[in-house]
Specification:
Residues 146-174 form the C3H1-type domain. The chain is mainly α. It has helices at 69-73, 89-96, 113-123, 153-158, 174-192, 201-205, 207-226, and strands spanning 77-79, 84-86, 100-101, 110-111. Among the domains are: 52-98, no CATH class; 149-186, no CATH class.
Length: 242
């Protein structure tokens, strides 16, 4: 039995992806990076004309030296207050439009808002112009005992010290005397105290049998004492040793 044909039409095949463009020599030619807007400035090198992911400056690379007049004449513009470089004059002009004048009266300094804020704090702030001052700091006071008052352990244990008079510690027996007194007090306290007997699990299980055996032993001793079992009788021939 023939199946009915479906009226569904398959979608057309996707377009063929051609290989990337190559130069006349047959080598792959990478695409050219896009150009950012004129107001964009890279945060790594403080330059414009390229994106931050296309920046060739390494993270640990030192800041670039300020350009000379010959470099500025060839197209490198530099903003001295903000310490920024620009590759195109349009970027430099856009940056200059963001400058603000210093808020202090009579000051002609102008730069970006962040630089002006830092300048105002350092040049016109509360501590501006005071410079560094030397402050006398009192030395740390140690309330602990000095070395001369601490007994020498070697002298206390052996009675002599190999350092002799050069030893920084005290050659006295106060430490040993105090230790002996403390040890004697501890021994006396241990002798007066009764240690608590800790019974084991086996002893707890056999407690009834142990008490029964003790009663039997005591009854045996009582019988021997009452009947004078070990005393000799007149019928026994006992030699008395003088």
């Amino acid at each position: 039995m023939d199946r009915p044909q479906s009226s569904y039409n398959a979608p057309p095949p996707p377009p063929y992806h051609y290989p990337p463009p190559t130069n006349p020599g047959g080598m792959y030619q990478p695409p050219m990076p896009s150009i950012p807007p004129m107001s964009y400035v890279c945060r790594k090198c403080n330059l414009g004309g390229h994106w931050i992911h296309d920046c060739m400056k390494k993270p640990n690379q030192q800041l670039k030296q300020p350009p000379t007049k010959s470099q500025q004449s060839h197209g490198d513009w530099h903003c001295e207050p903000c310490e920024k470089h620009f590759a195109m004059k349009s970027q430099f002009d856009a940056h200059v439009l963001t400058h603000e004048a210093c808020w202090a009266p009579g000051c002609d300094f102008s730069a970006s808002k962040r630089v002006v804020t830092s300048h105002h704090q350092t040049a016109h702030g509360q501590y501006a112009g005071s410079g560094l001052k030397e402050i006398e700091v009192e030395g740390q006071k140690f309330h602990g005992p000095s070395l001369s008052s601490i007994p020498c352990k070697q002298f206390v244990a052996k009675g002599t010290c190999k350092r002799g008079d050069e030893c920084n510690f005290a050659h006295t027996g106060a430490l040993s005397t105090a230790q002996d007194k403390a040890k004697q007090q501890y021994l006396k306290l241990q002798a007066t105290q009764v240690k608590e007997h800790k019974s084991s699990l086996l002893r707890k299980l056999l407690a009834k049998d142990i008490d029964k055996e003790h009663r039997h032993i005591l009854q045996s001793f009582r019988y021997l004492v009452e009947h004078q079992f070990f005393q000799p009788t007149p019928d026994d021939d006992v030699e008395v040793l003088e």
